[in-house]
Amino acid sequence: MTYLVIGICAFLLIAVIFIAAKPISMGIEARRNTNDSTNNKEELENNDAYEIDENNLKISDEINKLNNLRKEGTISDEEFDRAKKKLLD
What we know:
There is one protein chain. The chain is mostly helical. It folds into two domains: 1-51; 52-89. Helix content is 85%, strand content 0%. Helix 2 packs antiparallel against helix 3 (77-88). The protein is rod-shaped and about 90 Å long. The protein starts with a helix and ends with a helix.
């Protein structure tokens, strides 16, 4: 009888561990991702070379796209200058 109770307890323990393993690992991974993103953000904030405003980054991307269009001949130099001025204002 004792062996039966011990066997049932062992089975239940293994079942609980098996069922809980995936959510626990997902929680650990989410915690690591949160810590990594926090650490990366702090590193970027501490490093003066990487202090770039998101808006400036978006504007520079748009200017690069406009420059590519100008190089391809899709837009003229005047259109490029007007669009760039509009973005910077």
